[in-house]
Amino acid sequence: MPHALNEPILDWYADNARDLPWRRPDASAWAVMVSEFMLQQTPVTRVLPMYEAWLARWPTPTDLADAEPGDAVRAWGRLGYPRRALRLHGAATAIRDQHNGEVPDDHDKLLALPGVGEYTAAAVASFAFRQRHAVLDTNVRRVFARTVDGTEYPPQATTAAERRTAGDAMPLDDETAAEWAVAIMELGALVCTARTPRCADCPVAALCAWRLAGKPPYEGPPRRGQTYAGTDRQCRGKLLAVLRDAEGPVPKTALDAVWEDALQRARALDGLVADGLVEPVADGVYRLPTGAPVNA
């Protein structure tokens, strides 16, 4: 059954693919890697301007690695989940130091880079180097859950069964497999969406086990909604924004002014320090990370 999805989805993608800069023939492997870091948990519309600005400033891994990690955090702006900026800086540093400044084309070497997990390694190997890898993001997993397994949503964590399904569905030659990886992802992003799937526009609606079963409602564990207002995550964002907008170290009083709850504020600040996003310079003074010893 999974192979039956190939031709209709590939044909659909040929007619409906979005023109995104990281998909263009002239996109470098580094550009693809940057896009993959930015697109984690963030919609394309928010990523596009940040992606263009980032590559204009740091067009190669070495350019980013030579900058301070705090510059990466500052440039990340309000893209969200700023630890991704530090991870991308760490990956760039490893690429500079271990791979002569070139993004490695070997999947295992990609996976060994700091901040690069199973999904990102497969995505870069597939999209940048046109290799045959199963690329399982949320969109792809949802398409397989519906078309193959007959369930509305996939499990919360990727399972061995999902990996087998994705492997069985891959075309055999590298180039077609790479095109397939982005095509099924695009279908999940544009048509087989989480809340309002457009089944009437789906090229594999006639094969979809979930639709053919009458679209039974999801019966798995409760799906966690993404709350933001009043959370530690919002508090962290407020504190980080003060440091990002400052030209140098910031006194704690400036951080205290942006969040009323002292206990939550202290917890959020401690978390930012633990994550390496903020450095204490002296008692009650903080800055974005520089990569240098605090008292140097």
Give an account of the 3D structure:
The protein is mainly α and 296 residues long. The chain is 53% helix and 3% strand. The chain contains 15 helices and three strands. It has helices at residues 6-16, 29-39, 44-57, 61-65, 69-76, 83-98, 107-111, 118-129, 138-149, 160-169, 174-190, 209-212, 232-245, 252-256, 262-274; strands at residues 250-251, 279-282, 285-287. A three-stranded antiparallel β-sheet has the order 1-3-2. Strand 2 and strand 3 form a beta hairpin. The N and C termini lie far apart (62 Å). The mean pLDDT is 94.
> The biggest beta sheet, please?
3 strands, antiparallel
Helix content: 40-55%
| Gross geometry | globular
Mean pLDDT: 94
Low-confidence stretches: none
Portion in beta strands: under 5%
Record the strand order, biggest sheet. 1-3-2
CA-atom Rg in angstroms: 21 Å
Determine the structural class based on helices, strands and strand pairing: mainly alpha
Order of helices and strands: HHHHHHHHHHHHHEHHEE
Report, as a whole number of angstroms, the end-to-end distance.
Answer: 62 Å
Number of strands: 3
- List the total number of helices: 15
